[in-house]
């Protein structure tokens, strides 16, 4: 069996969706960038482990409550973050990365590495 990237230069996917002249919403790269845009720091914190809202708030002091809430909701809609609400008073809520969200760790590392070496 031939590897699916044989015959393609490194970094070019063997996928017809890659042969476009303009970004499209169906493009996997655009989907990934849209999920991370402005939200990567929340993902970074959750890569370190599950966090409560107040722990995230303390780790990201420059992010307002509204923006943090919006980002958590958007990451939840994207299937990156899950919210676990425990019964009791006060209610306990923990945020964690989904399996799909944990797969963003190497993506963030690759983006960091590339940016650190950029001219």
Could you please describe the fold and organization of this structure?
The chain is an alpha+beta fold. 46% of the residues lie in helices and 12% in strands. It has 6 helices and 3 strands; from the N terminus they run H-H-E-H-H-E-E-H-H. A 3-stranded antiparallel beta sheet has the order 1-3-2. A hairpin with a 5-residue loop joins strand 2 (81-86) and strand 3 (92-97). The longest helix is centred in the C-terminal third of the chain and has 14 residues, at 104-117. It is elongated. The termini are far apart. 12% of the residues are buried. The model has no long low-confidence stretch (mean pLDDT 86).
Give a quick summary of the entry:
With 119 residues, the protein is α+β, with helices and mostly antiparallel strands. 46% of the residues lie in helices and 12% in strands.
